[in-house]
Structures are given as structure tokens and as C-alpha cells.
Amino acid sequence: MEAGDRPRAEDERDVASSRRRAAAWAAGAWLLAIIALSAIATLRPRLLLQVIHYIPGRDKTGHFLLMGGFGGVSVLAFAGRRVGTRRIPVLGVLAVVALFVVLEEVVQRWLPNRTFSLLDIAASLSGVACFGALAAAWLAREARSDC
Question: Can you give the pTM of this predicted structure?
Fold first, then answer.
């Protein structure tokens, strides 16, 4: 082995670590996008309505994709990471995302130009479940290929 060579397992860990780091940044950016869109919907609802008019299913599709994507990226970023001696489970990540989704919708009861909707929660949680399952399957496939 030459001086610059490292064992293959260490290279794979470095790649996995950099992927998780990138996914964590993506999850943070996704969360900022959710917050920005929520602020726009509260402060300038007509601006958002002009754009959402062109999306099939409009509001519910937006909830499914936006919150579902956040759930999926969060699973890729945080599921399996170590906290102390324990690993963060996929369901733990999805539970935190689901809690955020429900709180985000409940807060709308007290915001101007916003309305609380159980259908919005259902669309958001459906997206979280679907994208979360896809991300979990991706992680499981990667874990099997590492063996």
C-alpha cells in the first residue's frame, strides 16, 4: 500500500459521512424554504396564490411535496446517526417531522390570512410517510450494498 492509499472501508465511511452532511444541509435549506413560504402565505398570500394556481391539486399537492420532501431529506440526513450510544431510528426522525407538520398547521389558527385544515395535515403527513419510506428504503439498500 502506498503512502496516499487508505483502506477501502475508510473511503466508504468518508463518502457516507459527506453524503449525510450534504443531506443535513439540504434538510436545513428545506426547512428554511418551508418557513419562507409560510411567511409569504401569511404576509403576501396573493403572491403565493399566483404561483400555486398552476400546480395540479394546488394546496394539497404543495403540502404533500413540500412536507414529504422535508421528511425524506431529514431521514437521509439524520436516521442512523449516533447520539451518545444510540442510533436515531427512521421512525424517530419521521415523528419529529410529523410533530413539526402538525404544529405548523395548528399555528395557522391564529395567523391572519391563514386557515387550519385537517386535509392539509393529511396531505402533509401522507407526503412525510411516502417520502420517508422511500428514503428509508434507500438507506436500507445502501446498508445492504456495504456488506
Answer: 0.82
